[in-house]
Design brief:
Chain A: This is Gluconate 2-dehydrogenase subunit 3 family protein. The structure holds 2 protein chains of 2 kinds. By secondary structure, chain A is mainly α. Chain A is built from 6 helices and no strands. Chain A has one domain. Chain B is of the alpha/beta class. Chain B starts with a strand and ends with a helix. Classes of the chains: A mainly alpha, B alpha/beta. At the A-B interface, helix 5 and helix 6 of A face helix 8 and helix 9 of B.
Chain lengths: 143, 552
């Protein structure tokens, strides 16, 4: 992913899991998770991501990374319902929305070893202890 | 194809059944070869990865089969065909490794209820809907015949739990060898609710050490249990119990990464052995006096159907077109509940309390289900599986829901008794082949309508249980349509007395080939309202004992 694409995707996943008193997808390295998996398990989805990021930026007149959370949420809600312009998304945005949503949840709530859930952000939020080294041995997690 | 030295028996598959047969035969002095398509994993392969395990294979699964080159064809209800890889949806995967599913299972160790062996007799007249369009039948054996072998499995592999407060189980000669694990917070909450309803809660029997047993330690109550290899080896699978015992006899040769292509027969219709590919893809012939098929319901059916010859043009044991029929797993239904107090205490394995009040005796229903709390939920499992109606799937409100209720939610569910269905089946695909060139399994057909009815009735029972336990909100988990297979896959080589309506006889021998046995979930006539693994194990002991007693 190019730096520009990463910025766009960051703005996207931030609307799916926003930051509040606890870290959101942006802080928890979800983009890093997706980037890593696009080179591995999700290799075949590379073109889909490329097209989707270009399309959503067109939709926001080139400003998707700059507009407010509310505005981004509005665009994504339209895609979820399949109501985004068919000129940009053949199915109104549904399929790609679902894919990014699934990958975002994986990156945020899954094991940190895959590049997401940085510093156990989501596990801290819900109050489960981090991975033990082995058995029940814990080590200090610095945040 | 090079032929190897002949052995007394060749066993295909080192899952729940194969290693038990291997142990019994080698202890009786038989030289045996056990062929396993996968590898041998150990406690060190636990890896605690929430996205890559046998329960949640989002990023693939560690214990096989490999996603590359092992597809299946899945036919949906509207006739659409999909090519599915092993970690994909609808594949009905069982781990392909030494121990099979028993390496990474949740390890519930249920005995079927006596009625589960006589479903037609018990329900045929009172619930005609269950028989209509189904192949509901009695097993040719009874609970009482299997009872001593249930006990043998419980003691040799190791089961902990306490069923003394469950009045609904069949007679037992001996208690379980290990006490239950101490109850979790969730367990205590549900116990109170069940008792308030006049139900009979008890500690689920589990193939898991609660105290040191057989030289392995007790469970450490961690979060990574179902779907994982146990990091302290406290879970009892065939790979760390009966298989080492069998290897210690010196009579067992275990060959890994060997995939059987077909069972070979001579001109008299007797099996002569098997043809298999080794890890380099070289084809070998392993001659044997007896062939035991233990590949699990889908792969065993696939192997028999792929074993075509002049005498068996439709595949082995398939003269009456019954191989691969009646594929059934378990439709899991139940309910979710939210609470205003913490229910979560981060103590595994999570599942611990069950009720069997609804397995049988439900008016106008042919069976029911055991209901239990769910295994401990990893954060991603919670997010992908549990969301109250009306809660959005993303955004600030979804995040708030997870934050608030991850530690305050309980799922209760159970494996619904299924009505076997002739059209729910495994065939071999006419075109698609795996990486070795063997035609792949093709799954088609859906669930019998009465199965859905039973499942729906169970959701109401589960909701009532959660409400009585103090849930502030509950909602049902309904049954999906589609082929039922999954890890509890069964039924494809039905046991029966009549060769025209079953594949194997009461001793699990093919009706039409005297030296081929099937020993796995395939032979189950019906699959109970319980996880089936202990029944597979008990039956393996029963059949192997008969084999060494009856064929010296």
């Amino acid at each position: 992913m190019s730096p520009e694409q990463a910025v766009l995707l960051e703005a996207w996943v931030d609307a799916l899991i926003p930051s509040d008193q606890d870290a959101g997808a942006r802080d928890a390295g979800v983009v890093q998770y997706i980037d890593r998996q696009l080179a591995r398990k999700y290799k075949r989805q590379q073109p889909a991501y490329r097209e989707a990021l270009a399309a959503i930026n067109l939709l926001a007149e080139g400003q998707f990374a700059q507009i407010t959370l509310e505005e981004r949420t509005e665009f994504l809600t339209a895609m979820e319902k399949g109501e985004a312009p068919k000129t940009l998304f053949p199915d109104g945005g549904k399929a790609i929305f679902e894919m990014v949503l699934a990958h975002t949840m994986q990156g945020f709530y899954g094991s940190p070893r895959h590049g997401g859930n940085k510093d156990y952000a989501s596990w801290k939020m819900i109050g489960v202890p981090p991975l033990p080294v082995r058995g029940r041995q814990q080590y200090e997690v610095k945040s | 194809m090079s032929a190897l030295p002949r052995v007394k028996a060749v066993i295909i598959g080192a899952g729940a059944g194969g290693p038990i047969v291997a142990k019994e035969l080698t202890q009786a002095g038989w030289p045996v070869v056990l062929l396993e398509r996968g590898q041998w994993y150990t406690a060190n392969d636990c890896r605690k990865d929430d996205l890559r395990n046998q329960r949640n294979s989002t990023l693939g699964h560690p214990f096989g089969p490999d996603d590359d080159g092992n597809p299946r064809v899945v036919v949906t209800a509207n006739g659409q065909q999909r090519l599915v890889e092993p970690s994909g949806p609808g594949y009905s995967n069982n781990a392909a490794c030494v121990g099979g599913g028993t390496l990474s299972y949740g390890a519930m160790a249920w005995r079927f209820h006596p009625n589960d062996f006589q479903m037609k007799t018990v329900y045929g007249a009172q619930v005609p809907r269950a028989v209509e369009g189904s192949t509901l039948a009695d097993w040719p054996i009874t609970y009482d015949e299997l009872e001593p072998f249930y006990e043998k499995a419980e003691w040799e592999l190791g089961v902990s739990g306490d069923v003394s407060t469950d009045p609904f189980h069949g007679p037992r000669n001996k208690p379980l060898p290990m006490p239950p694990l101490p109850p979790t917070r969730e367990h205590l909450i549900l116990e109170k609710g069940a008792k308030a309803l006049g139900l009979h809660p008890f500690h689920i029997p589990m193939l898991r050490n609660s105290v040191p047993y057989n030289g392995r330690p007790a469970c450490m109550r961690c979060r990574w249990c179902v779907g994982f290899a146990c990091e302290v080896d406290a879970k009892c699978g065939t790979q760390n119990t009966v298989l080492p015992t069998a290897l210690n006899t010196g009579l067992l040769e275990l060959r890994l990464q060997c995939m059987v292509k077909e069972i070979l027969v001579d001109e008299h219709g007797k099996a002569t052995g098997v043809a298999y590919f080794d890890r380099q893809g070289q084809l070998w012939e392993q001659p044997a006096e007896h062939v035991i098929v233990s590949g699990s319901a889908i792969e065993s059916a696939r192997l028999l159907l792929n074993s075509k010859s002049r005498l068996f043009p439709q595949g082995l044991g398939n003269r009456y077109d019954w191989v691969g029929r009646n594929l059934q797993g378990h439709t899991y239904t139940g309910a979710f509940g939210l609470f205003d107090q913490d229910t979560y205490d981060d103590v595994g394995p999570g599942a611990g309390i069950a009720i069997c009040d609804y397995n049988h005796g439900n008016p106008d229903l042919a069976g029911g289900a055991m209901l239990a709390n769910e295994f401990i939920r990893l954060p991603y499992q919670f997010v992908s599986g549990l969301r109250a109606p009306g809660v959005p799937r993303w955004g600030a409100a979804h995040k708030e829901f997870v934050r608030r209720f991850y530690r305050r939610s309980i799922a209760v569910q159970g494996p619904t008794q299924e009505m076997p269905f002739f059209e729910s089946r495994v065939t071999v695909d006419p075109q698609v082949r795996d990486k070795l060139g063997i035609p792949v399994a093709r799954l088609s057909g859906n669930k019998h309508p009465h199965t859905i009815e039973i499942g729906d009735a169970m959701t109401a029972k589960a909701e009532a249980w959660l409400k009585a336990s103090g849930a502030i909100q509950t909602w049902p988990k309904k049954a999906g349509q589609g082929t039922s297979g999954g890890q509890h896959q069964a039924g494809t080589c039905r046991m029966g007395n009549d060769p025209r309506t079953s594949v194997v006889d009461r001793w699990c021998r093919l009706h039409e080939v005297e030296n081929v046995h099937v020993v796995d979930g395939s032979v189950h006539v019906t699959n109970g309202g319980f996880n089936p693994v202990l029944t597979i194990m008990a039956n393996a002991y029963r059949v192997a004992g008969h084999l060494v007693g009856g064929a010296k």
